[in-house]
Amino acid sequence: MKTLKNILPITLLFAAVLAIGSSCGSNDAPCEKHTYYLDADGDGYGTDEYTIEECEPKDGYVAQNGDCNDNDADIHPGADENPNDGIDSNCDGEAETTIRYIDADLDGYGSQEESAADGVFNNTDCDDTNPAINPGATEIAGNGIDENCDGVAE
Questions:
Q1: Helix (H, G, I), strand (E, B) or coil at 130
Q2: What are phi and psi for residue 7, nearest 5 degrees?
Q3: Segment 11-62, tens digit of pLDDT
Q4: CA-to-CA distance for 128 and 149, rounded, in angstroms?
Q5: What values do phi and psi take at 34, rounded to 5?
Q6: Phi-psi region of 60 (alpha: psi -120 to 50; beta: other; left: phi over 0)
Q7: Which of 37, 43, 45, 135 has the fewest Cβ atoms within 10 Å of its own Cβ atom?
Q8: Strands 51-54 and 114-115
């Protein structure tokens, strides 16, 4: 009986120490894991390509994803666009442009001439006087006309 009296207080003391230790932020305590994304360019946004599931982010990983070019810190969601540079800086799926081009034949393809207000956002029509000639047209073999603006008259 004397042995049980000696063991019981030690067991209770050990249990109390364990309880206090786990309530003080022990590294072994369970945590809520989150997905973190590798941010190779350091702009605060990562990509879905490399992820980790952790309680806290590791160096080089961030909570924000959606970076469409993780090799350039100037390109990420929310970045300012530079119109007419052909680059989708804010990762919204399109490179913004403010220059419009005259589409005299209304085929959806603009000429090389800029428009003051109306027009289209491309200047790829090689003959803006004929709606049958544009980059989306089907080439007619043997007529000597470049219908699809690829530089080859077939």
A1: coil
A2: -75, -40
A3: 434 443 344 343 334 566 789 999 999 999 999 999 999 999 999 999 999 9
A4: 11
A5: -130, 160
A6: left
A7: 135
A8: unpaired
